[in-house]
Amino acid sequence: MYMLVSIVVVGLVPYYAIDPDTPISSAFADHGMQWAVYIINVGACTALCSALMGGILPQVKVVSCYLHVLS
C-alpha cells in the first residue's frame, strides 16, 4: 500500500518538489484535485485518532493487571 501511494505521489509531483509537511495532500492540491485533499486529511485524522485510542484504551487493563500482581 505504501509503495502504491509513493508511486502515485511521485507520479504527480517530482520527488524534489514534494512538500515535506503535507506530501500527499499537497501533491493532489497542486493538480487541482481539492476534493481528494479533504478525503486525505479526514483519513489522516481518523487514522491518528484510531491509533491513539488503540494505545490509550488498553492502558486501563494493563495498569489494572499490574496492580493486581503487585498486591
UniProtKB/TrEMBL annotation:
Keywords: Membrane, Transmembrane, Transmembrane helix, Transport. One of its GO terms (molecular function) is amino acid transmembrane transporter activity. The keyword Ion transport does not apply. The chain crosses the membrane at residues 36-57. Belongs to the amino acid-polyamine-organocation (APC) superfamily. Cationic amino acid transporter (CAT) (TC 2.A.3.3) family. This is Cationic amino acid transporter 2 vacuolar-like.
